[in-house]
Amino acid sequence: MDKAASANPAFRRYRRRFIPITAAYVAGIALATWLIPDKAPANFTTITIAALPGLAVIGWLWAMARMLIELDDEYLRLLEVRKAMVATGLTMGITSFWGILELFSPEVPKLPVFFVFPIWCLGLAVGQLVNRRTFGDSSGGCP
Amino acid sequence: MNNRLKVLRAERSWSQQDLAERLGVSRQSVNAIETGKYDPSLPLAFRIADLFEESIEAIFVRD
Predict the structure, then answer these.
(1) A119 vs A115: CA distance, rounded Å
(2) Interface mutation vs chain A, best among B22, B26, B29, most A CBs within 10 Å
(3) Can you give the residue ranges of every domain in chain A?
(4) Distance CA A46, CA B58 (A)
(5) What angle, 0 to 180 degrees and rounded to 10, lies between the N-to-C axes of helices A116-135 and A74-104?
(6) For the residues B17-43, what does the mean pLDDT come to?
(7) Are A135 and A1 in contact (CB under 8 A)?
(8) What is the interface pTM, i.e. ipTM, of the complex?
(9) CA-to-CA distance for B47 and A121, rounded, in angstroms?
(10) Which of B27, B33, B37 sits opposite A5 (nearest CB)?
């Protein structure tokens, strides 16, 4: 993406929102790792700490939705939507495939649901590559 | 859909960046429209037509 496009105010605002939300997500995971012992009961403390990364993920999706609303360039918006669609398709495909394996083959290791969002984020990177290959462009607003 | 955007731009000695600024879009958008990778929405097609003082059909033609 060229500098002029990445300087779009919608991308700038998105990046400003993204940083504190990412900090909350990382802090939530760090707190969970530090404070929740293995095989902990699902009590108030455990649920509260686990909710923090969940709320951060909602915040991320809200920030992306705001960016799509505020982005006044229809072509850049198309690139962002395509990226999210590739990420969603990949995530659904991988988790459905693995989910069926888990249901019917007990020897297959369980994929913790926690990894659904990181897989989706990796899907965004794949979506960026798809945009680059099909359009020759990749939007740079959304990590 | 084909278009005459590149020719119209060249007649005015505008760069893609110049045209993008006049239209209020990114240079990437202008490049994608010029190369036929992306067909603009009707509102953007009207903005392009107004800028070049031509009709939409005179700028955008069917394959």
Answers:
(1) 6
(2) B26
(3) 3-135
(4) 65
(5) 130
(6) 95
(7) no
(8) 0.91
(9) 36
(10) B27
Q: What is the CATH superfamily name and number for domain B2-61? A: lambda repressor-like DNA-binding domains (1.10.260.40)
What is the structure's pLDDT at A142? Answer: 47
pLDDT digits (tens, 9 = 90+) for A59-114: 999 999 999 999 999 999 999 999 999 999 999 999 999 999 999 998 999 999 99
- 8 Å CB contact of A2 and B28: yes
Q: B29–A76: do the CB atoms touch at under 8 Å?
A: yes
Q: Summarize pLDDT for A25-66 with one digit per residue, the tens.
A: 999 999 999 998 888 889 999 999 999 999 999 999 999 999
Q: Is the Cβ of B19 closer than 8 Å to some Cβ of chain A? A: no
What's the one-letter identity of residue B4? R
